[in-house]
Amino acid sequence: MYKKVDSSLNFAVREQEITKFWKDNDVFKKSMTLREGGEEFSFYDGPPTANGKPHIGHVLTRVMKDIIPRYKTMKGCHVLRKAGWDTHGLPVELEVEKSLGMDGKEQIEKYGIEPFIKKCKESVWKYKKMWEEMSDQVGYWVDMDNPYVTYDDNYIESEWWSLKSIFDRGLIYKGHKIVPYCPRCGTALASHEVAQGYKDVEETSCTARFKVVGESDLYILAWTTTPWTLPSNVALCMNANEDYVEIKVGDSRYIMAEALVSKYFEEYELLSKKKGKDYEYTEYEPLFPYCNLKKDEKAHFVVCDDYVTLTDGTGIVHIAPAFGEDDNRVGRKYNLPFVQLVGSDGKFVKGTGSLEGLFCKDADEPIMKDLENRGLLQARIRFTHSYPFCWRCDTPLLYYARSSWFIKMTALRDELLKNNGTVNWIPSGIGTGRMGNFLENVLDWGLSRERYWGTPLPIWICDECGKKEAIGSRQELREKGGLKEDIELHKPYVDGVTWKCSCGGTMRRTPEVIDCWYDSGSMPFAQYHYPFENKEVFEKTFPANFISEAVDQTRGWFYTLEAVSTLMFGRAPFKNCIVLGHVLDKNGLKQSKHLGNVVDPFEILDNQGADAVRWYFYTISNPWIPSRFYSEAVSEVQRKFLGTLWNTYGFYVLYAEIDKFDPTKYELSKCKLSLMDKWVLSGLNSLVDFVDKNLAEYKITESARKIQDFVDGLSNWYVRRCRERYWGGGMTEDKISAYMTLYTVLETLSRLCAPFIPFMSESIYQNIVRSVNKNAPESVHLCDFPKADLTAVDEELEKGMEIVMVSANLGRSCRNTANVKNRQPLSRIILCGETAKGLQGELADVLKGELNVKAIDFATDAKAFVAYEVKPQLKTLGPKYGKLIGGIRNELSSHSNEVAGAVENGGTYKFTLDGVDIELSAQDLLITTMGTDRYVSQSDKGITAVLDCDITDELKQEGYMRELVSKI
After folding, report:
1. DSSP label at 391?
2. Comparing C-alpha atoms, which of 82, 124, 178, 198 is closest to residue 516?
3. Are 594 and 625 in contact, with CB atoms under 8 Å apart?
């Protein structure tokens, strides 16, 4: 009937067998087909990039994403789970550049855009097999046979449809703005991308002397954190309403904010004080000769703006309109010239002397050295600040004036906030905090990328009149471009499509591709090629009921989903989102190759198995809290929970096979249940009710820990107390009740645990259910989630048994302390405290049997049986009473029981020592119970158990008899 249960903890091998069983029998597909017509529960799979290896953080996201769809499927819902692949963008391009030995756009264009994007398409799938194997190994059920792929023409066409809609509503525009720009990749980034790449770096700021025109030894002191921008300086900016002073130090005079003088000078002579407005248009000599002004351009004078503060520097900032948003705004305000001495590659352009060809960030030191040599450097200051780096290639970003395409997200700010407020963020603080704050300060989305491998921006511009037109489908492209058939929707193919404008000019596509984050944000509709097909499927599955990814996606996928959905549908694209914390190493450090602390997910999965890893992540902490992950911790989980459940299942199979017990021949409702049976079945149904309600609210950790506690009680209390019921010969009424109870618990647990530990649950189900009932569902994952029978729940019994178990633990501890063997009967145990009162009847018999005592007595408190040792708590009493500690210690030692009684329940103990009134509370004391010659006590959870260790001759003789029987 039953297969023998291997008692080893080699779960990984057994999990491979289960994976094969699922694949051979197409169980995942059947689980979805079975629920067709049921309530639709929508899940979105965030698309990973398959040209990078999966790491342990990806295991976390997969196990967290897997549990809810499994649970909902077993609850009768139809849950489509379409896998997705993020295939565009810089990560792919950089990988290809590296493989081809290239560095930069110039080499790509020399190689050829068409062969380059073909290489990109190949590179996308470099680690696809590894990702699929990892997903199979962790039991992540998602449809990988029919995934959405962001480079697919159908996917791109859906994006084009959305972009045309946004463009036609006037929400896409081209602007010359200061944008975060990666000189290595040669493209601008969006604000949500920048947010992902900040690092704390130490750099040098400097204060330079700008000589006032027509004045001898008079300098304006201005401060900058980016010395490399000084050659492009065109103005100095003061706050019009703040006070500025002219001071004399030695033979030189300086102008700076009054409030900041003391930061630079200890001794000086005050010559004058004026408002910043009074210095407006004061001219100064440029620091460098590289700024070639046109005849009608005016520069190098003082301007005023409120953005200047007096918190740092000199209260005067230098203005370079090409390299800062505020600088650019002030430049437009004063009609300043636009000087950009750093090229798009981040290097100084021709005509910049010794700086020519130098990367801008590397020019800080040469520039300051040059100023120092010419007597124009006032100070240099090292400082640490958070600076943005390209999140793809790790190059420092520049704030750089570029012509880029933007989506006007600022126009939708209020709608974004409103939609975000409808999402159940888990934890809730993400919605109002990290995400809410980001949306409060939302910027226009920098949509365009000056790259190659991406969704082409579908905007055509007339080269004569400048008319702009967006294309929203392949049919429209064919009609406009006079194409006989569809072409691939990528560069360079779409770049060759042109048509005549009404003015006679030629409509040509703007050359940029779009931010690949727009790809992933479009997946709710693009995965189904909506609106060109699958309209009904999209409408049934939008918005998603559930998504989950790591916290760094707050300003990544989570934001772009919300942004695109708000733009296109005016609502949030998901209802519930579990935000995951990062996976750290054993010491709480971020895992990195540099530190050598990266955990290989395949090594853990091959050794400890997926169920162990899953259970670790479900129970170690709430999902949003960063978790420390290491092999030993997973092994501990494997031993404590999986090992305990597996051994309990093995116990049942061992004896059920001996007795050829077939649970299909009996009914639990007709069994005469013992008190222990009723208790474990009550606890089981309480557990089912708890887990069902908590999983419905996405409370995974609480559910898993409750299951863990129950399994511990099942093994170490129920089975241990009842094991003799399975040993006798013949199928007695009590034996049948014991079997049916344990079978019911294990069968229910196999279904209850299926979303958590799908492999072990399947193993147990196949061996104890399918082995005896071929009409049962083929897999545990084709079963319904268990329903709680609340009529079987006896809360009083559960509370009473909890008291019994606590008392039993205390009693066993007392025996250990007194060094009295378990087989030696004792006369009684005294339970003290309100909690223990009323433990009568069968519950008392269980406790007596467990502790091998003749009687249970009750007492209000334990003072009559317990001696206390009381010592001063030096942490609190030392600072308060100092030299009196010795006397206090003597007082406590002489009146230990009296002191312990006085401070009980919040009271105090008072006495006078050397004329000083002393008052002590429980927090001032270290109190431990001490056994007397006869009595040994232990306390926990409001109960004090006092074991009477007086062994009479009669009890001694009975102990000998028990020892003899055990040996026979």
Report:
1. T
2. 124
3. no
Mean pLDDT of successive 10-residue segments in the chain (968 residues)?
87 93 96 94 91 86 95 96 92 88 87 94 90 93 94 97 97 81 70 64 87 92 91 94 94 93 90 94 93 86 92 90 85 88 87 89 91 92 74 72 87 95 94 91 89 95 94 96 94 96 95 94 97 96 95 91 97 96 84 74 90 94 90 89 95 94 93 94 97 96 96 94 87 94 97 97 96 95 96 92 89 86 87 78 88 86 76 87 89 86 83 90 83 76 83 84 73
Q: How many other C-beta atoms lie within 10 A of the C-beta of residue 133? A: 14
User: Tokens at residue 553, please?
Assistant: 């996606």
Structure tokens at 939: 């306390």
**Count of positions (residues) in the chain:** 968
Q: Return the amino acid letter for 317.
A: V
Q: Cα Rg for the chain, rounded, in angstroms?
A: 38
pTM over 0.85: no
Mutual orientation of helices 733-752 and 643-658 as an angle, nearest 10°?
Answer: 140
Which ranges constitute the DSSP H helices of 697-732? 700-713, 720-722
Closest CA to 290 of 356, 242, 239: 356
CA 369 to mean position of chain CA atoms: 45
Longest dimension (CA), the chain: 119
d(CA 400, CA 179): 5
Smallest CA-to-CA distance from 322 within 197, 228, 193, 406 is with 228
Q: Please give the positions annotated as active site.
A: 47, 86, 517, 553, 557, 590, 593
Say how far apart CA 903 and CA 893 lie, in whole Å: 15
Neighbours of 343 (CB within 10 A): 14
Q: What angle do the packed helices 128-138 and 610-619 form, to 10 degrees?
A: 70
| Cis peptide leading into residue 531 (ω within 30°) | yes
